[in-house]
Amino acid sequence: MKLATYIALALAAPVLAMADEAAKAKLMEAGKASFMTCAACHGMDGQGVAAGPKKMAPSLSGSKIVNGDPSIFALVVHNGIAKEGQDYLGMMAPLGAALDDEKLASVMTYVRNSFNNTASVVTAADVKKYREQYKDIVGPVTRAKLDELAKAAKK
What we know:
Layout: H1 2-42, E1 50-51, E2 54-55, H2 64-67, H3 70-79, H4 101-112, H5 124-133, H6 143-154
Antiparallel strand pairs: 1-2
């Protein structure tokens, strides 16, 4: 009986992997279209749009927010980041009201798997959970708050 189970699982694994890849490809395609809003500041290449000697926004390549805990990345896209200091000319605008769960999941998946990033896929179900998790945080978050949440997430 155990042998039959192992054989069934071995045969099912490639089918499941293809389904996962198809779902990821669909998210990536939709995310690329939604990324156009982000590209205004982060650039089509994700490196940040130059504005004189500074940039409008930071590079997304290798970003600890992008590649870290996806719930925190969802919070950033949803609520934005408060303008602090003069490192970047722009402010991360809150986009949560403009992106439903599916669009937010797709743009997150696109960014987490583009610009030399390789992170997990984010689903609409994940985003729904993240919105609920951070529903009490109102307005743009500070970088200090993001660091605090990241430390708590690692525990």
